[in-house]
């Protein structure tokens, strides 16, 4: 059984015929994977946009409406090969499956009807790809957090100390922002490859309010969003960019 320390591995299957659904369920349930089936590609994509977690996508090439190849291409617009592996299932009637899978961004393909042993091996291999990608992200985020926090915390404490001397009435609000910043930054779980964007935005807002106190009229900012907030990103993706922009802009 492939495992991860933050939950059961989840597989989404799109457009799989009833007979193949039973086959997938019988074979993959033995390994303890969670399976979710969707008949149409658009429905599956919509659920994934609404934060349905997945570690592997299994897509049948021929689908009603949106084809499996198009589903793969759409997924690749917001997930890399490492972040979310895709296995493309194809009928034996054509010889261009490898080319189609590669052009669509699928990691691998299988010809139906599939062999149980081969399916287990291919799924296990793709999930290992996913796990290696997650581990790399956690390592990079861990290094980023280690580099990010010490100097900012030092500067924030200096700002609070200075404010307490000259503007003691503003210290309470600044301490609230500082506490919120600490709570949000330490709340990030590096086992989570993605977090809600609104959490990152709250962290950015707290950071900017603290830095505004430190730099006074030297720092002005305005936050404009050209998209909705309801999507997920790797933790500490935006805040370091904002910090670099503030520092380089002022310096």
Biggest sheet character: 5 strands, parallel
Mean pLDDT: 77
Helix content estimate: 40-55%
Strand order of the largest sheet: 2-1-3-4-5
Rounded to the nearest angstrom, the radius of gyration is 23 Å
| Relative strand content | 5-15%
Order of helices and strands: EHEHEHEHEHHEHEH
The helix tally amounts to 8
Label the overall shape: elongated
Low-confidence stretches: 1-6
Q: Got a strand count?
A: 7
| Coarse structural class | alpha/beta
Distance between the termini: 53 Å
Summarize it.
The protein has helices at 18-29, 41-49, 68-76, 97-104, 116-166, 171-187, 197-215, 239-250, and strands spanning 10-14, 34-38, 56-60, 86-90, 108-111, 195-196, 232-233.
Detail the topology: elements first, then pairings:
Elements: E1 10-14, H1 18-29, E2 34-38, H2 41-49, E3 56-60, H3 68-76, E4 86-90, H4 97-104, E5 108-111, H5 116-166, H6 171-187, E6 195-196, H7 197-215, E7 232-233, H8 239-250
Helix pairs in contact: 3-4, 5-6, 5-7, 6-7
Describe the protein in words.
It is a single chain. The chain has eight helices and seven strands. The protein has 251 residues and is an alpha/beta fold. The strands form two sheets. Strands 2-1-3-4-5 form a five-stranded parallel β-sheet, with helices on both faces. α4 (97-104) links the parallel β4 (86-90) and β5. The termini are far apart.
